[in-house]
Amino acid sequence: MKALIILSAASISFAACTSTPDKTIRNTDSLSVSPVTVPDTLCFRKLDGAANQDTTSLQMIIDGKQVSGFFAHYPFQKDRRVGEITATISDDLIKGIWTYMQEGINDTLDVEFKLNGDKLIQKSYTIDPATGREIISDTSVFNIELNKVDCL
After folding, report:
1. Structure pTM?
2. What is residue 97's DSSP assignment?
3. Are residues 119 and 147 in contact, defined by beta-carbon separation less than 8 angstroms?
4. 70, 120, 129, 141: which could join 44 in a potential S-S bond, CB 3.0 to 4.6 Å?
5. Within the chain, how many helices (H) and strands (E) appear?
6. CA 151 to chain centre
7. What pLDDT score was predicted for residue 38?
8. Mean pLDDT of residues grouped by 10 in the chain (152 residues)?
9. Rounded CA separation 122/55 (Å)
10. What spatial distance separates the first Cα and last Cα of the chain, rounded to whole Å?
11. How does 71-100 read in b/e, with b if 16+ C-beta sit within 10 Å?
12. Distance (Å, whole) CA 29 – CA 26
């Protein structure tokens, strides 16, 4: 019985190795190919403070209308905020959510950026008097400039 199984397996393997490949030529004239968009990775940084010791950096991937990335703010000798950006882009305006960790606590903030040549300009925050939280208000302006840098 074992010999029969081994012989059958060997015959099938031999047939598979010696079979003639399908040489059918297909007409591809009627196929349409959609253009493939390649995601674009951009990096920006801002050095600030008396001795440029505060660092804000953003690495983002733009894939069509979707934006994702890593955003971090490292103020010198203060609590840092590090996390991910999830956003959309329309023209040069990026709007989304920054999910970050600060002092071991997860939190979120709305973010708005504007691409302007080799600069990324972030909309500033104001404090909501009712909650004490940072928000982007109707009076917030684009005034925090990050410079384009090579991505590492």
Report:
1. 0.73
2. E
3. yes
4. 120
5. 1, 10
6. 13
7. 80
8. 41 43 48 69 95 95 97 92 97 97 95 96 95 94 97 88
9. 14
10. 63
11. bbbeeeeeeebebebebebeeeebebebeb
12. 9
Q: In this structure, which amino acid lies at residue 92? A: D
Burial class (CB in 10 A: 0-12, 13-18, 19+), 18: exposed
Structure tokens at 128: 């909501």
> Which residue pairs from 134-140 have beta carbons closer than 8 angstroms and sit at least 24 positions apart in sequence?
134/109, 135/110, 136/110, 136/111, 136/112, 140/112
CA distance 126 to 144: 13
Please report, as a single letter, which amino acid is at residue 10: A
Cβ contact 71:79 at 8 Å: no
Structure tokens at 75: 């103020």
Predicted local confidence at residue 35, as pLDDT: 67
Is 12 in a helix, a strand, or coil?
A: helix
